[in-house]
Amino acid sequence: MSVEPAKPTDLGDGDHLEVLGYQDSFNRSMSLWANFALGFTYLSPLVGVYSLFAVALSIGGPPSIWWIVIVGAGQLLVSLVFGEVVSQYPIHGGIYPWARRLWGRRYAWMAAWIYIWAMIVTITAVAGYGSGFVASLVGITATPESTLAITLGLLVIALIFNFTGTKTLARVAQIGLAAELIGVIGVGLYLLVFQRKQEFSVFFDTMNVQGDGSYATAFIGSAIAGLFLFYGFEACGDVAEEVSNPGRRIPKAMILTILVGGVSALFSFGGYVLAAPDLASIVSGEDADPIPGILEATLGTVGAKIFLGVAVLAFISCVLSLQAAASRLLYSFARDGMIPGHRWLAKVSPNTKVPRNALIVACTVPAIITVFIYVNPAITLPVTAFAVLGIYIAFQMVVLGALRQRLRGWKPAGTFSLGGAGIVINVLALAYGVFAIWLLATPGSSGDVVADYAVWIGLGVVLVSGLAYLFIARPDRKSDAPAGDAIEVAERLAVRRAETASMSKVD
């Protein structure tokens, strides 16, 4: 793909970084479509829909599909706010540098601490779930031992690909994008057109999942159908220093990730519902893993195997994208001296121009968690339940920081701008985020304390350990990197652009 030229009054990528206090250290070989593919494979509608389909239907029935629309619209608002922020701050690491420049060092440290653990747990969960697809594809019986071995294998394969450089990351992400589109839109359309066994009106039929209670409660409980799906678009900004013309391209890539991911998820979820030969057994909870049966019944044995192959490609690409995003966050964190071992973590390979040491951590820690889960499977729920809530909290810390700066007079100075609508969108994005956090953090009602409060347990462990390190080690005092400078940077960018425009006229 040809490189999109910057406008004469735009700053060059290196000049923009210089205003922000950094120098170019990476190869800017990632195009708009490769950046979009990275975010899309991280978001992974195939993984999300397959993981949540049966659970969502058993809680909220077929109308649970509308959460994909509701959450997609809310996260689109968040992506627009992120777009303005990354356009002014096209820096590696995403959430961490954005929170730092919008608020301050300690605030950013906690945002990044929560976010990095949520990402690492997500890597663990995706690799673990992908092991089931690999086992089915090659005909291996899924045992704790085989699951452990395959999960570790997926983590190592992704690490090897990441080690080879940004171009390989972009290529694999694009292959993963193709696999995702085939697996979700292609199969979804086929099921909708040729294998439909239900009427479209089923999406308004509760099928009495509420019993004697209110359907509103059941519908709210099925919000996971969307909440567990729509994150990953922020990964487009995690690799900002490897994207050419990032101020324009990354906001577009994030918006595309939400829109295409949402449409893909709707086709996939809707297709499985309409093609289900026994929808009642899924809604009642009798069939807890219905998608393989639906595929066998509609695609045949060979077709189901082909789909499994496509799914494995999607899972590998998803783990690859997650590792890449986590490593860039660790690198950004370390570059500012804000994390133990920061000198080692901040090293960039002179040959491949990737943060190899940070990548090693992004593979090793999920591998260790995988071993813990193998030894004690009971920790799976509290560990994984925290991941999504952690992501949403970190997101809203950035959204809140952006709103705070706007109220102080900040006018985003990137090449992507919402103009006068920015503050309205910012307020709406924050309101949506608070609602989403409430949905995720609401305790269950099963009577099992660990299961009902799993999200709070996971969040509590991360918050307590993070605050303890922050106030004992005081990493914020060891870093002199800029913080809370959104208004000042906007002014400096305006001056530099004016100087660039004057020089262009003279030339």
UniProtKB/TrEMBL annotation:
Question: Looking at the UniProt record for this protein, which Gene Ontology cellular component terms does it annotate, in alphabetical order?
Answer: membrane
Q: Where in the cell is it found?
A: Membrane
Q: Which GO terms describe its molecular function?
A: transmembrane transporter activity
What InterPro entries does the record tag this protein with?
AA/rel_permease1 (IPR002293)
Membrane-spanning segments: 32-59, 65-86, 107-127, 147-165, 172-193, 213-233, 253-275, 306-333, 354-375, 381-403, 415-441, 453-472
Do the record's keywords include Membrane?
yes
Q: Name one Pfam family in it.
A: AA_permease_2
Q: How does it sit in the membrane?
A: Multi-pass membrane protein
- Which keywords accompany this UniProt record? Membrane, Transmembrane, Transmembrane helix, Transport
Q: Write down what this protein is called.
A: Amino acid permease
Which organism is this protein's natural source? Agromyces aureus
Q: What is the lineage of its organism?
A: Bacteria, Bacillati, Actinomycetota, Actinomycetes, Micrococcales
